[in-house]
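Supplementary Methods S3. Complex input for the D-glutamic acid-bound model.
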Amino acid sequence: MNQRAIGIFDSGVGGLTVLKEVEKLLPNENIIYFGDTARVPYGNKSKSTIIKFSTESALFLLKKNVKAVVVACNTSTSFALDHLEGIFNIPIVGVINAGVEKALSVSRKKKIGVIGTKATIASNSYQRKIHSKDKKMMVYQQDCPLFVPLVEEGLLRGKIAEQVIDMYLKKFKTAGVDTVILGCTHYPLLKNEIAKYLKGAFIVDSAKEVARYVKGVLCEEGLLNDKKRKGKTNFFVTDEPQSFVRSARLFLNRKISNPEVVNV
Ligand code: DGL
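Predicted complex, serialized as structure tokens:
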């Protein structure tokens, strides 16, 4: 069981931020990454569609015999995590709990900002989770739909990035939020610019936090791979692989070989 792979799925390429952190923290693990590139983005779709796509993605990984599934996509976690936990009997780890726990532990002023896709923000998933732990926490939410294309175009700094960040995050500045949760797979690539704009605020990188969480879960369940050699990562996508390979360079700082194209 321990040598089976960890499955990670996302709507597309963004979940590679999660993959990168999981590889860093758990270098001996084998990983199967599934990116639903034919149907990305999930962030502007309806709840039922997001649940359907997420379930199909998770099922693909289950058929590959993974020992745990990481839902790297914040939009999928927001809408489909409970559903997936209900139907599968292996550990399913979403990105929200980990980010929220970190934010609660660092916020001193009790003012947390949450950013994500339109769907994630509309779902109130982060706010609900935060308030289930601390009712007094002030939560400021903002959807940032332009951040995903900005990142995928490699516009990680400079005038355009600065203007878009100012447009979305001005209200966080005015409100004096001291902690911001990056509630979308792509946003860790904008972390430095966001930190520069919101001087002094703690930026919670959900990808880093979820990697720690995954390690904890595998440890608890006795599922850590005890082999000492470096693990292998295999990639699967649902549409042509070229743009995925191109983006992977940006997200992972390394070249990956062509992923296998599959239908779900
Ligand atoms: N992976 C999505 C998320 O983290 C962003 C891209 C999309 O909209 O599908 O919410």
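Strands lie at 6-10, 31-35, 68-71, 92-93, 111-116, 138-143, 179-183, 202-205, 233-237, 260-261. The domain at 96-206 is CATH 3.40.50.1860 (Rossmann fold).
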